[in-house]
User: Fold this.
Amino acid sequence: MPVILVVDDEANIVELLKFTLQKEDYRVISAMDGPTGLSMAAEYLPDLIILDIMMPGRDGFEVCRALKASPGTAGIPLIMLSAKSDDIDKILGLEMGADDYVTKPFSPRELLARIKANLRRRQYMKESLSCSGPQRELVYSNLVIRPENYEVDLGGKRIYLSPKEFEILEVLASNPGRVFNREMLLEKIWGFSELRETRTVDVHIRYLRQKIEEDPSHPLFIETVRGVGYRFNDKPASG
Assistant:
């Protein structure tokens, strides 16, 4: 039975989520503030975390950053909840490492779909890592990608990518030269492709470029195909 941690200081939201999720055979644990949420995440290692932004003690941004910085909880899918619909909050949440973002008031059915999509992705990752056989490497110039280990080396040095950043890089690098539009990447990485969520892809691409490109404003590996999407260049020209 998958375990979901709900961290929200609104009792009615917590009760709504418990009712909705327990009907779907999820086990739900909850915390009413950030510090308690962090300790429960470390103790129970849930399969997914639903995290509100506006909370006492430590807000959702701080909690998200702490969760993604800890090796024990970094890979747990995290959906942020916010009463604000401003793009800046969504961008901040994604920058901190959130996997998804839902605005209050939300449809329980929509949130449930997001939860299922993130859990499917996590299960796929686990199965991929457990498969036996030789590990493959994707090598392009000074960039080395090891999909089975979620490892990336750049110029001989290990660099850290969030799970979603890595998955985007793997999809693109496994299909060099192929153009992926934003909807395709949303479907492959997040499991949904609503047009209103395409900014999610752009934010992750921007931060991925900052980590693997020598000059993110003039990327060599991840190219923008104007008006369409993105593609991976397997023969990047040197400086």
Q: What stands out?
A: The chain has a mean pLDDT of 85. The chain has eight helices and twelve strands.
